[in-house]
Each structure stands twice: as structure tokens, then as C-alpha cells.
């Protein structure tokens, strides 16, 4: 059954890759006539639809909890910040947020055929964190996106965790929120690194857990809170992560045994 699910899921994934490839020339036309933002919103909706179908076919369940309903609306200037556990983390952010947002992604991903077309179509922002120039360009582009009224999705650790522990949060992501006076939505992710078995087989029956925290309004923060914003956001995510590990321990053990 798992083999059949994987085959059907990958057929669906390939179908959506093909759709984005066919639509890419349309994106270029929209960009020429300065209507790029409309196509990006359409692509985001299409991407979200494809993700929903793929997760359903793969039998990967997503359990979403939140502090309140307002935190999922993502209205206004907002920067979404999550812990970085697995390669699929951006996928799950797209899954839970209705409002289109631009995710900051590794530049190396833009070198992968077909995937690069999807990333460009949904307005992803490339960044090479080892390059000062690339980081500055990404920061500038992110500022432009926020001024356009769109959201930003970013992982402040800068890289995926190799041991499951949440790494230090970099100040750059916080500066982006502070410079644009944007609210921050912290997101805690659990089990996203277990979506695949041996890197390519979908872990059917897996439950992924996502918690969306309340908005942090940076405009009302005191100076010392702004200075330690990277610590405040990380602490929120880490504390919830520990609670989620305890709360869902039975589910996690069952999934690990599969």
C-alpha cells in the first residue's frame, strides 16, 4: 500500500511540476507588464492546492494548533519565523497560511531544474548566506516584498538543524521585522524531518505537528526587547517544541516504528 501511495503521490507531484513549467512563460509576460504580483498570488494558491493533494495522497497528516484565529490570517506587514527541522518546512508553512508569502530559500535550490521555475513563480527570495552581497540583496528584496503588502517566510537559524535542537536565531531576520515595523508570527514545527524515509519514500501515516503562535507586535516593544528579539522569538518556539514533544510522544513513537 505504501508503494502504491508513493507512486500516485509522485505522479501528482510531477503533474504540478509540469503545470508550473507550462505556465512559466505566462509569468514572464506578467513580469514584463508589471503584473508579476498577480501571477505570484495565483501560483501560491496553485502550489497550496498541489501540496494539499500530495499530502493527502501520501497519507501525511498535518495537525495544526494556534494561540488564536487571528494569527493565521497573516494580514498586514508580517514576517513568519519558524524553526528549521527539515527540507519540507517551507511546504508546511505554505500549507497552513492562506495569505501568499515569499519564502527566503537557499540559492542552490534555484539551480535545480523545474524546482527553480516553481520557486520563481511563487516569488521566493534566493539567498547565499555565505555571501555578504547575496544576503544584502535578499534583505533588500524582502523589504520590497513587505512594502508591496506581502508576507515573508523565513527560518532565522539560517540552516536546518542536524541534531533536532533549535539553533541560534540570527539577528538579520529580526532586523527585517524591525526596519519595516512588521509583526512576527513564530511557528513551531515538529516531525517535518520524518516526511521521507531514505530521502525519497513518503512516510505514510506520519503526523506532522505545527503550532502557530500569537503575533508579536514589534512596534510596542521596548528597546531592550528589540535588542533581544531573536532570543524572545526563539524561546517561544523552543518552549512550545518541548511541550509538543511530550504531548505527541505516543504518535511520534508509533511513526518511528513504521
Automatic annotation (TrEMBL):
Membrane keyword on record: yes
Annotated metabolic or biological route of this protein: Lipid metabolism; Phospholipid metabolism; CDP-diacylglycerol biosynthesis; CDP-diacylglycerol from sn-glycerol 3-phosphate: step 2/3
Protein name in UniProt: 1-acyl-sn-glycerol-3-phosphate acyltransferase
One Pfam entry name: Acyltransferase
Catalysis performed (reactions): a 1-acyl-sn-glycero-3-phosphate + an acyl-CoA = a 1,2-diacyl-sn-glycero-3-phosphate + CoA
Any single biological process term in GO: phosphatidic acid biosynthetic process
Transmembrane residue ranges: 7-30, 42-64, 76-97, 109-127
PANTHER family listed in its UniProt record: 1-ACYL-SN-GLYCEROL-3-PHOSPHATE ACYLTRANSFERASE
Tagged with keyword Lipid biosynthesis: yes
Coiled coil: none
EC number: 2.3.1.51
Keywords: Acyltransferase, Lipid biosynthesis, Lipid metabolism, Membrane, Phospholipid biosynthesis, Phospholipid metabolism, Transferase, Transmembrane, Transmembrane helix
CDD domains the record matches: LPLAT_AGPAT-like
Lineage summary: Bacteria, Pseudomonadati, Spirochaetota, Spirochaetia, Spirochaetales
Organism the protein comes from: Borrelia turcica IST7
This protein's domain notes: The HXXXXD motif is essential for acyltransferase activity and may constitute the binding site for the phosphate moiety of the glycerol-3-phosphate.
A cellular component term, taken from the record's GO annotations: membrane
Domain annotation Phospholipid/glycerol acyltransferase: ranges: 78-192
InterPro entries: AGP_acyltrans (IPR004552), Plipid/glycerol_acylTrfase (IPR002123)
Family: Belongs to the 1-acyl-sn-glycerol-3-phosphate acyltransferase family.
Amino acid at each position: 500500500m505504501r508503494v502504491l501511495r508513493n507512486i500516485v503521490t509522485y505522479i501528482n507531484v510531477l503533474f504540478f511540476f509540469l503545470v508550473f513549467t507550462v505556465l512559466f512563460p505566462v509569468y514572464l509576460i506578467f513580469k514584463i507588464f508589471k503584473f508579476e504580483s498577480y501571477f505570484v498570488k495565483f501560483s501560491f494558491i496553485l502550489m497550496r492546492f498541489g501540496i494539499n493533494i500530495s499530502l493527502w495522497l501520501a497519507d501525511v497528516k498535518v495537525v495544526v494548533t494556534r494561540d488564536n484565529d487571528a494569527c493565521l490570517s497573516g494580514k498586514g506587514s508580517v514576517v513568519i519565523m519558524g524553526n528549521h527541522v527539515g527540507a519540507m518546512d517551507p511546504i508546511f508553512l505554505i500549507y497552513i497560511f492562506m495569505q501568499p508569502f515569499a519564502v527566503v530559500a537557499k540559492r542552490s535550490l534555484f539551480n535545480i531544474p523545474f524546482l527553480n521555475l516553481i520557486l520563481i513563480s511563487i516569488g521566493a527570495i534566493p539567498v547565499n548566506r555565505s555571501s555578504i552581497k547575496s544576503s544584502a540583496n535578499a534583505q533588500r528584496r524582502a523589504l520590497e516584498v513587505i512594502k508591496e503588502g506581502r508576507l515573508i517566510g523565513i527560518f532565522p537559524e539560517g540552516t536546518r538543524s542536524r541534531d533536532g535542537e533549535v539553533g541560534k536565531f540570527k539577528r538579520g531576520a529580526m532586523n527585517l521585522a524591525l526596519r519595516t515595523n512588521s509583526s512576527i508570527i513564530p511557528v513551531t514545527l515538529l516531525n517535518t524531518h520524518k516526511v521521507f524515509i531514505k530521502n525519497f519514500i513518503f512516510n505514510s501515516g506520519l503526523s506532522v505537528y505545527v503550532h502557530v503562535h500569537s503575533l508579536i507586535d514589534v512596534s510596542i516593544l521596548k528597546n531592550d526587547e528589540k535588542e533581544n528579539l531573536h532570543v524572545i522569538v526563539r524561546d517561544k518556539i523552543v518552549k512550545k517544541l518541548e511541550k509538543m514533544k511530550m504531548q505527541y510522544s505516543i504518535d511520534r513513537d508509533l511513526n518511528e516504528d513504521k
